[in-house]
Design a protein that fits this description.
319 residues; alpha/beta; 5-stranded parallel sheet; 7 helices; 28% strand
Amino acid sequence: MSNEMSPLHAKVVVIGSGPAGYTAAIYAARAMLKPILISGFDAGGQLMITTDVENYPGFAEAIQGPWLMEQMRGQAEHVGAHLVSDHVTKVELDQRPFRLTGDSGQVYTADALIIATGAKAQWLGEPSEEKFKGFGVSACATCDGFFFRGKKVAVVGGGNSAVEEALYLSHIASHVTLIHRRDSLRSERILQERLFARHNVEIRWDCVVEEITGAENPRSVEGVRVKNVKTGALDDIPVDGVFIAIGHKPQTELFAGQIELKSNGYIKTAPDSTATNVDGVFAAGDVADDKYRQAVTAAGLGCMAALEAERWLAGQKGA
């Protein structure tokens, strides 16, 4: 007898388990499509490393990111989605049904596919950064800036993301220090002009982060130590929060060469749609959204993807 597992088939397979993936699974399940959701290694997505969430509608008090994802997971299961703890290592989109292979060796086939693999913030890789993640170190000003009202913060980076984060924070924080390793910014000129015009923004040129310093109990950021790359001089800047804005990396390696990507690696979708250039394949959440990257917009895109997949499948039957 063969030990090979028989392929698991579903009308809709969702890859990814952040707000986009879970919402897509909820809508597909309620449409009686019996979806399979493959959760990946990082089940729950970026909200799993987010402590206080205040900007997801429906909750008067701040909630914990991991708790919100547990609720979404439970809701998806409750309405009939089949959740699988596996990690997709190979996709074949040039055949019908689509064929996916999991790390477990399990093969999945799908009539329609929803990609919700997300994007990951790029980090500095400093041990102190890891220590204070969620305790004053963040990669999202629109998510966490509110917690630093009237406080001093630092932003690390020099591209559009960093300048946009610094501008956003300048309206909330009392003072913003932008730390950039070069002597000029890489962002668009208009953004630079806006930043230079802000009275409470200071730029530390030619500097890199050596260490993020803070207290142990309760864990909190108290400062950032920077090193001047030209002189080697060290300086301690007192801040209450550090925002890392050196870019996001969409999780699209699996699909390279099989699906159309934008120049920055995000999946390209049709205007006002989650449809990709491959018929029957849809992309939702941060894997396709390089503009907003919010839990609530990801959930909205997950809803759109499931509705579009449902309509597409109905059209196939009538073809």
